[in-house]
């Protein structure tokens, strides 16, 4: 497999009802590539400043993340500061310091240009297309976005959407992008913008997948130990794309397993701060939680004679 | 089967973003018994005033709802006025006129006392126990409640919970009752209060079922046509209890099918105002949507060789 991700690498300061951490490893490309690394190598394109700790570089290297596309520049690393209230579904941004990420111009090393699977993390949609322009013949392209780009760069985002196979968004982003409150109608409208498929992430409630008339509803793993939701969406996308690239097919049953796998990776990611839980995660645990979800969501057909002899 | 419901019969005035209706048929016992009537007869205990239209009585009779327990008293029928904003998950109560429901003292006709399945709709927990006192040997008792009773009659509610097999609540009620934000922990605490099982209804997100260590996550049917959420919870409970009473067993697989059936009935109920959609619903449609949910939620096991040759 050849899976490419472009996105942010950040130093996050996070407050949740359960504690706080300062300047811990974060960023969309970091969560994505760590989650995807369970399924094979990942090629990363991102930028960090001079202050980026060497231990974080080692962490990614040791996971088989190809850092040929990691640019280290003069200046400070992107920093994000956020707070989660008891409703852990929504992040409240306290501070954003773009630093070297502010004028990030993603450049693909020559060896990356044959990448077949591409994940465009949540960056300026102009830059998302700039990355696509550098990939020769992608087989499956997915992208993420956020309210900021939907609002401020809508036309550019729509251009990007015409070139991707799948969009990952949350409920609120889907509604904003489609201008439609009902999530089913919103998904249909988004499919009209170009992507073959859209995944609507709903945090602790699971995810809905739409592709043509095909709909899949994945329940989330009911966590008693939700700790820090940062990176859940990118871990979801990483698990999804990692599984997809490993599988090499995009049949409906494969996409469904990819979504559940994404959900499993996200459920682990939020159990501890930063990448702490993904750092210790093992293949057996991924498989075990996937099996739990199979059990959790299983139900049988109705009895054939259920309504026999009843009126109506 | 012998399924008993006690609850309200109301004349509702409802505003949604899609329209409004004045003095239409509503109430927990009404939605419950209509939904349950697809699976067999239902015994109803409720009260209405002199102004209650004869056509509504006929509607229930024609569905096989036993009205021996329907008390008609001097005065006006219970009235509820509510509004739903674009977030259709939450009702904003504009006005409540208890009228004859205000001093409702449920009395079971002698013929109801052998009821085996009992649903205690959302009424004063003192009255819920008063009903239980009149049932000889119930096999399965479920109850509903709301923030008002959790707040103002907590001790009485806890007494009721010690006598029921299953509690139906929504997310917010579960959190309030348990004093715990995490829904998994909240469910566990509620099980400690007495019920063998708890269903946490999450509106458009589905439902979670907890019984001991057994957990089931049911996705909701993704509706493009959600119109009026009034009665969704009681239709859910009606579909659940109707199916359960029809089946005559409480094995885990039966309870799971009952939950999905409840979800199907709720999904139809909200497609139109009042009881309008349930009034025209057919067995084949219930079966059809159940099958759609089976498809919607289905995914396969992970490949046995998925992680072969990968590090970690």
TrEMBL record, chains A, B:
Q: Entry's SUPFAM superfamilies?
A: Ribokinase-like (SSF53613)
Query: Which Gene Ontology cellular component terms are annotated?
Result: cytosol
Going by the UniProt record, its keywords in alphabetical order are: Kinase, Transferase
Keyword DNA repair assigned to the entry: answer is: no
Keyword Oxidoreductase present in the record's keywords: the answer is: no
Annotated Carbohydrate kinase PfkB domain ranges read 25-265
* An annotated Gene Ontology molecular function: kinase activity
The name of this protein is Adenosine kinase
Report the source organism.
Anaeromyxobacter diazotrophicus
């Amino acid at each position: 497999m050849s899976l490419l991700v472009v996105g942010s690498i950040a130093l996050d300061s996070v407050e949740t009802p359960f504690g706080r951490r300062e300047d811990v490893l974060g960023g969309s490309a970091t969560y994505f590539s760590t989650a995807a690394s369970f399924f094979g190598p990942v090629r990363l394109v991102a930028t960090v400043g001079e202050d980026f700790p060497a231990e974080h570089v080692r962490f990614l290297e040791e996971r088989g993340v190809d850092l040929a596309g990691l640019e280290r520049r003069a200046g400070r690393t992107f920093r994000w500061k956020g707070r989660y209230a008891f409703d852990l579904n929504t992040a409240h941004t306290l501070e954003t310091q773009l630093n070297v990420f502010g004028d990030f111009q993603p450049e693909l090393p020559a060896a990356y240009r044959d990448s077949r699977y591409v994940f465009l993390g949540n960056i300026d949609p102009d830059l998302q297309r700039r990355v696509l322009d550098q990939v020769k013949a992608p087989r499956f392209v997915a992208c993420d976005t956020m309210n900021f780009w939907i609002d401020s760069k809508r036309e550019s985002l729509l251009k990007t959407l015409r070139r991707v196979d799948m969009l990952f968004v949350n409920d609120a982003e889907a509604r904003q992008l489609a201008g439609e409150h009902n999530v089913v109608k919103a998904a249909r409208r988004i499919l009209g913008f170009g992507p073959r498929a859209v995944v609507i992430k709903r945090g602790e409630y699971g995810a809905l997948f739409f592709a043509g008339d095909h709909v899949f509803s994945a329940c989330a793993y009911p966590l008693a130990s939700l700790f820090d939701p940062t990176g859940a969406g990118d871990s979801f996308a990483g698990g999804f794309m990692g599984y997809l690239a490993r599988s090499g097919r995009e049949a409906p049953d494969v996409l469904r397993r990819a979504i559940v796998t994404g959900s499993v990776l996200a459920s682990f990611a939020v159990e501890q701060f930063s990448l702490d839980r993904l750092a210790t995660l093992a293949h057996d645990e991924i498989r075990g939680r996937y099996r739990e979800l199979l059990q959790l969501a299983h139900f049988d057909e109705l009895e054939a004679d259920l309504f026999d002899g009843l009126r109506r």
